[in-house]
């Protein structure tokens, strides 16, 4: 991509009402645009980041036997009435709309009800199970407070996975596979080291649910952990009974601010019973399907990565997530000639800053955008026969011979 052709441009200032550093950089660097509080647009660079995050999640979920679907955002109230979640007193985050022909619809805050209801058409026997289905979908929630840029918004991208099993035992097996897949996902996203699976409140149906919490100052939650971080728990379950259950003492625990980047729940029959999703078992008996659900806040993850890895100059994307791998800068006539040559064949992984700007301005934008490798091809360096490659994360610059230099063999 040529920067001169990129539709967005970098901004010198961020909106005053954005407190989080990551959010300010995302706005200034042109990854996102703010429509209203808690409502954002994703621009070309931001969309590439989202797609990279989705790709990693998709690969890991497909690996454990999940299948991708895309359900509607407009929702029929009926299944929600059956589970008693249509009531605004019980679910206060609903956005609702009216059909021109009369009648009300909901704008998807989540999909347990429509997914479970839909499966009634496809599940009749134990032979039809298990089913593991997921989607990447826009959710709408009338959150009282929007916070930290794209970390808590009123419209956001979620990956939601639902598992439908014949019994608890086969459910548990899959739940364990999902835990491991989640760990791989956060590792590949570059936040694995600071993301912990926590014990969270599980409601009435199972003792605990699990959340995945990433330590960050701008997080809304507080987590508690012991020194080696083998036991991590959420604030809401910090009580004597749970401490005893987990075998830790209160004084052994430290606390940290964290953001919930995902969660996994054993739902048992919570939704399948009221929606009557049942099957004929081997022995001929009728049984209710055993359910689990597994969420990841895709756009929140993007905000958390931006926030956590940024430094005072701008964003720092891990290679797996970055919108481009290389940020190519041309300086001078000879520099431009060679940069043009290097760029050929790398239109997909390189952002080529071919703009008619002073080097200092290009370098500042390179730091703001946070692309992993900056390659400077300048007349002055070429006289010395070198090309400079700077690693955005470490700040380290290497001088490589200009002769035979190619972006393709940069890492070999
Ligand atoms: P939270 O406690 O943060 O409100 P939640 O318990 O409502 O989250 P779920 O309904 O299970 O979360 O949603 C799955 C994931 O979607 C969460 O783990 C989180 O990463 C993300 N998420 C939830 N609400 C929002 C929001 N308003 N904006 C952005 N991401 C969100
Ligand atoms: Mg919520």
Question: Which SSEs are present, and which pair or pack?
Answer:
Elements lengths: L20 H8 L3 E5 L2 E4 L1 H20 L3 E2 L5 E2 L1 H6 L12 E4 L5 E4 L4 H8 L11 E10 L14 E11 L2 H21 L6 E7 L6 E8 L5 E5 L6 E3 L5 H7 L7 E15 L9 E3 L5 E3 L1 E8 H12 L16 E6 H12 L6 E4 L5 H11 L3 E6 H5 L2 E6 L5 E5 L11
Parallel strand pairs: 3-7, 17-18, 17-19
Antiparallel strand pairs: 1-2, 4-6, 5-6, 7-8, 8-16, 9-10, 10-13, 11-12, 11-13, 13-16, 14-15, 19-20, 20-21
Helix pairs in contact: 1-7, 2-5, 2-7
Bound molecules: adenosine-5'-triphosphate and magnesium ion.
The site of adenosine-5'-triphosphate has 15 residues, from strand 8, strand 13, strand 16 and helix 7.
- Provide the list of bound ligands, each named once: adenosine-5'-triphosphate, magnesium ion
Distance between the termini: 23 Å
Strand content: 25-35%
Tell me roughly what share of residues is in helical segments. Answer: 25-40%
CA-based gyration radius: 25 Å
- What is the number of helices? 10
**Average predicted confidence as pLDDT:** 95
Regions with little confidence, pLDDT below 50 for 5+ residues: none
Q: Tell me how many strands there are.
A: 21
Q: Per the principal axes of the C-alpha atoms, what is the gross shape? A: elongated
Biggest β-sheet description:
9 strands, mixed
Structural class: alpha+beta
